[in-house]
């Protein structure tokens, strides 16, 4: 459905925000993850045809969208990281406005989408008065107006409280059936339970493209739990990678990334996706050294 071939975006002479990324996607939820500044948003903007690649191609069903952007725009829904609302419009009026822009004349579809994102009871309330989570849900509703085949969502849970984040993740998971959902985030827990694939970026480059299960499997045997006296903690931290540390009655409860037994009494632990990614990065750094 969507293929990226050596996609690069360069600003000025020396800055490559995206550097030679090649990827291919079908259906499902794809988590595009990486630190702030890794190039995720720039890549999303190129897929959404808001900016053109400096080099390479982005193909949708075989069509180069830099040359023919309308080939994807009719079938694309996009929620940018910074999504604003018009202060004088209610949620319903906001949706009607975007429906007119997208050529959607089905009033019943607007009502169904507001129900889907659980905003139908707030349809006549000014959108400017919504919480951050409600605005993000309204943003998803407008992105779905044209029943897109590809939904591009950039940092959707930034600034949301835990309840809103959970609701938003569940909604995106449901939308992943029969569509391609591209979700960029630097918060690994946002994609841990819903992504079918992960594309990991670092400094503009793609460093991995695989399933969460493959990443977790590779990290098994490299993540440990341990409890050590506080007096021993500083010395241990000097020679192993401590993922988490918590004081408990004069001792330190630790989660550690290490290729072998890190200390006496340590036990192998089932890694979370975030821990698995950190263990993988530490292993790569050790190999490079």
UniProtKB/TrEMBL annotation:
UniProt cross-references to Pfam families, sorted A to Z: ABC_tran
Molecular function via GO: ATP binding; ATP hydrolysis activity
Superkingdom assignment: Bacteria
Keywords: ATP-binding, Cell membrane, Membrane, Nucleotide-binding, Transport
Presence of the UniProt keyword Cytoplasm in the record: no
Record-linked InterPro entries: AAA+_ATPase, ABC_transporter-like_ATP-bd, ABC_transporter-like_CS, P-loop_NTPase
Domain ABC transporter positions: 2-228
Family recorded in the similarity comment: Belongs to the ABC transporter superfamily.
Name listed for the protein in its UniProt record: ABC-type multidrug transport system, ATPase component
Organism ancestry: Bacteria, Pseudomonadati, Pseudomonadota, Betaproteobacteria, Burkholderiales
